[in-house]
Amino acid sequence: MGNVRIENSDSKTYTISIKVSGSSSTISIAGSTTATYSWSGGSHDATVTGGGVDFPSDTIKVSRLGGIR
Q1: What is the C-alpha separation between 3 and 64, in angstroms, rounded?
Q2: What radius of gyration do the chain's Cα atoms show?
Q3: Among 17, 18, 1, 16, which residue's Cα sits nearest to residue 53?
Q4: Domain ranges of the chain
Q5: 3-state class percentages of the chain: helix first, strand second, coil last, to nearest 5
Q6: Which end of the chain is less enclosed by CB atoms within 10 A, N or C?
Q7: Are 15 and 51 in contact (CB under 8 A)?
Q8: What residues contact residue 66 under an 8 Å CB cut-off, 6+ apart?
Q9: CB atoms within 10 A of CB 10
Q10: What is the pTM of this model?
Q11: What is the pLDDT of residues 26-69, one digit of tens each?
Q12: Biggest distance spanned by C-alpha atoms of the chain
């Protein structure tokens, strides 16, 4: 169980992919909004990939126990 909150502070819409326990979901984040993706089950970890977003690396791993890695 966990969640990822992503803030979009510009006027563009971005699409990202979130993978949890082998299942992927794609979410769009409209300009000047915040999106939260929540999941249930045994996994505390998620992998976020950018789509149209320039992250500092190709993927961001998120852990409920350790924050962003």
Answers
A1: 8
A2: 12
A3: 16
A4: 2-68
A5: 0, 60, 40
A6: C
A7: yes
A8: none
A9: 8
A10: 0.66
A11: 888 899 998 888 888 777 778 888 766 666 666 667 665 544 44
A12: 36
